[in-house]
Amino acid sequence: MNRRHTLQIAAYAARTSVRGGIGLVFLLLSLTFGLLVAHRMMQPIETMARLMVDPALYETEEGRRDAELRVLEQMTEQAKPVIAWMLPSTPGNAAEEDDEAARETRRKRPRLAVSTDKDTEKWATYLLEDRPGILSAIFLILLLGWPFVVAFGAFDLYAGDIASRQLRYQLLRADRSSIYFGRLLGLCITLVAVLSLLGLVVTVYLGLKLGAYPWGEMLLWALQGTLMMVVVSLPYTALCGWISTAAGGSFTSLTLASLAIGGVPLLASLGSLQFDSAQYVNWLLPWGFQSRLLHHDPLQQGLAIGGCLLQTAVFVWLGHRTFTRRDL
Amino acid sequence: MTACASPPDFQLRSRPHPEVAFAESVPHLRPRMSETTRPGGLTALAVLHFVFGGKRIADTIGFVALRSRHDQMDGDKKPRELVDAVDATVFTTTSVLAVLTGLATIAAGIGCLKLRARLGRRLGTVAALSMIGVTIAYAMLLRGTRAGDFTLLTIVQLLFPLLTLFLLNVTFKDEFVR
Asked: Which pLDDT value is given to residue A215?
């Protein structure tokens, strides 16, 4: 692999990503998705604050603002069980109930009751009270949908050019490894740019519109959240890259990537109705641990980052192996 | 054979050839290795022009229909407040501008497909600017009402025209060769 070639290809791929139709639609789709998620989270809060706080009752602007913040606090408190339900319970607490009867009971109980253990509550408190709660909720929802957006951006990394045999022209000047890593790196740069833009827009809007959190705290949390979004994007990008090298065409690649990304949690959910251990299917992809990227415990967070990077390495290796061995 | 195929010399001598340096300094006269082909992104942008132009017209028609049924509304307060918030003159002006913007966006989409500089790039730029204007105008007009305000949805609506401005004037600047 030639490092200079790789960087050149990466820079070119990132710079010209919107010149292709897929790149342009991906950019529009990703930004629209992110902003719509943020809008859906913030609109009820804005509306409730406006409905519950009658400006005529307050003499000063500050009084009205304080009342709005109290409404926000109330809503955050009410949202805590929902956030706790979304978060997975810690394996240690689940292991305490190890006998067959307890497991049977656990299976029959609704998930809400299972996941609201002490650690999960602490986690929800950390996300909603210790950190800017609205941003945390936005990041949690984004974590659920972002893998599918990544699939849309990464499915055609190699598949289209392999199908049309256009990669042969590049092979005259650069080796396969440089092309493989260069394009992958180019997409990662694009993803970082898109996520940074998204994080910045949402944070600035939140700060200007609601003004509920201090700027410094909000910017730091947005930076951390964006970084975690980038980390979670890596394994999915690598997976799509692998599928793209193996597939015979763009459409096949998109179908397979979407099926793989969406199929894993679906299979885990359906399987867990019958067998508890089927939930571990989620760990084939970051689905099983990706929400721990926003965990309050640095160890859990570190393990989640490590898991994402490990899966990225595995998928990159598989993709590189396929790309360097297949007929182009 | 060669002599017959060559163009008559006397016609060429009557008009001087443009300098090569001139041709290279003008982007659309740069020599290309192959026939001009439209980048995939430009085709996608043209399709998006049709979609967003059509949506703008449909939205305006919906708004006009809403206003025409203004008197019949009694139960739902939200659309009523929305209509009340805008006075007749501003409403008519904004609606006409919105329809024109929609039509211009669709025409710019055709221009993008045909790679025409005026119809595609220039009209597309004008349409994008007026789309930004219309979006901001609606957001300002409905400000303070429950029906609408400057929200993240407004930024979502601004995404396409802002992206179009960037793409037409930076990324695809040299592609409009006709």
From this structure: 87
Average confidence (pLDDT) over A83-109? 56
pLDDT at residue A98 tops 70: no
How remote is the C-alpha of A58 from its chain's centroid? 41
Whether residue A33 lies within 8 A of chain B, CB to CB, comes out as no
* Chain B residue whose CA is closest to A24: B41
Cβ of A171 under 8 Å from any chain B Cβ? no
Chain B residues whose C-beta is within 8 A of a chain A C-beta are 39-41, 43-45, 48, 146, 149, 151-153, 155-156, 159-160, 163, 167, 171-172
Within 8 A by CB and 6+ apart from A69, the residues are: A212
For chain A, the residue count is: 328
Any idea what DSSP says for residue B19? P
Distance from CA of A18 to the nearest CA of B (A): 6
Residue B65 neighbours by CB distance under 10 Å: 9
Which residue does chain B place closest to A21, by CA atoms? B41
Q: Which amino acid is at A317?
A: W
C-alpha to C-alpha distance for A250 and A257, rounded to whole angstroms: 10
Show the tokens assigned to A238. 């690598």
Tell me how many helices (H) and strands (E) chain B has: 8, 0
pLDDT for residue B16: 54
Q: How far is C-alpha A253 from the chain's CA centre?
A: 21
* Interface contact flag, B40 A21, Cβ < 8 Å: yes
Angle, in degrees to the nearest 10, between helices B88-114 and B123-141: 150
Per-residue confidence (pLDDT) for residue A110, from 0 to 100: 47
Plot region of A36 (φ>0 → left; ψ -120 to 50 → alpha; else → beta):
alpha
**CA A277, CA B121: separation in Å to the nearest integer?**
58
Sign of the CA dihedral running A302, A304, A310, A312: negative
User: pTM of the entire structure?
Assistant: 0.79
Asked if B156 lies within 8 A of A27 by C-beta distance, the reply is: no
Tell me: pLDDT of A224 over 60. Answer: yes
Residue % of chain A over a pLDDT of 70 = 87
As a whole number of angstroms, the distance between CA B169 and CA A90 comes to 52
Section B46-71 average pLDDT: 82
Answer whether B44 sits within 8 Å of A24, measured CB to CB. Answer: yes
Q: Under an 8 A CB cutoff, do A21 and B43 touch?
A: yes
Query: Which chain A residues are closer than 8 Å to B51 by Cβ?
Result: none
